[in-house]
Design a protein that fits this description.
It is built from nine helices and ten strands. By secondary structure, the chain is of the alpha/beta class. It has a single domain, classed as Rossmann fold (3-Layer(aba) Sandwich). Helix 4 runs parallel beside helix 5.
Length: about 250
């Protein structure tokens, strides 16, 4: 909470949906990381994030913020490590509406504690469940590779359903590396040990999960020898019938 010129400004509000239950796969596979405060704070270090992302994080963050309009409404599915949230909040601006939804209270508190002076609202919610409002932009940043196939489909379609007409959904995640990218031989065994659902990002495109794919225009960009991808889905405006053209008197 900030006090400015006699006005009370409430930032970093945490709202809770009616039922918040941590999925079993989160506890089983990622619980040691995401439910451990010390490990989570270690992974939040910029140097660690740089190593994990092969020094691509700033390029990915920049390409996300370029897609966002200042003073717009933005929903982000899931908390992230590093500066991504701060950079997005700066782009959204003081008159925008930035909401971050996550199912894990520890991750919400971690992000809340480092963004005290930024206008961000947090929502304690499973992001595979429907949201009560629609947004100009929805961000899904490095989340899909952690999800089982059925949950991945739900999250992708929930993101698409949460965007306004003319708005966009931005997906940042792993991609199948190019054949010449030698890091693919290191990534595959690592994923099978620690990220069992990550390889699904190699096998199936993000847009193939969309139920109403034709309602969006899609574009895709890859990074670092195709190791990462940005997919943007823009909801198309409805085609209204044009009124008949009256014949000229002349």
């Amino acid at each position: 909470m900030l006090i400015c010129k006699g006005k009370t400004m409430k930032y970093n509000i945490v709202k809770t949906s009616k039922v918040v239950k941590t999925p079993a796969y989160v506890k089983e596979i990622y619980g040691k990381v995401y439910e451990n405060e010390k490990i989570s704070r270690l992974l939040d270090d910029e140097r660690i994030v740089s190593l994990i992302t092969c020094f691509q994080q700033y390029k990915l963050i920049d390409d996300v913020t370029k897609e966002i309009a200042t003073n717009s409404s933005v929903l982000q599915m899931g908390c992230t490590f590093g500066r991504q949230i701060e950079a997005t909040a700066e782009k959204v601006g003081a008159y925008g509406h930035y909401v971050i939804a996550d199912v894990l209270p520890l991750q919400i508190e971690r992000c809340k504690s480092k963004t005290v002076y930024q206008k961000i609202n947090f929502l304690s919610q499973d992001v595979s469940k429907a949201f009560s409002e629609k947004f100009d932009t929805v961000i899904c940043y490095m989340l899909l590779h952690e999800l089982p196939p059925a949950t991945k489909a739900k999250v992708i379609n929930n993101a698409l359903n949460s965007v306004e007409e003319g708005g966009k959904v931005i997906f940042i995640d792993y991609h199948k590396p190019a054949k010449w990218n030698l890091l693919r031989f290191l990534i595959k065994p690592f994923n099978r040990l620690y990220q069992p659902f990550a390889e699904s990002m190699w096998e199936k495109s993000i847009d193939s999960y969309a139920k109403d794919k034709e309602c969006f225009s899609w574009r895709k960009k890859t990074y670092f020898g195709k190791m990462y991808q940005k997919v943007v889905a823009v909801r198309q405006l409805p085609n209204y019938e044009k009124p008949p053209v009256k014949q000229s008197f002349y």
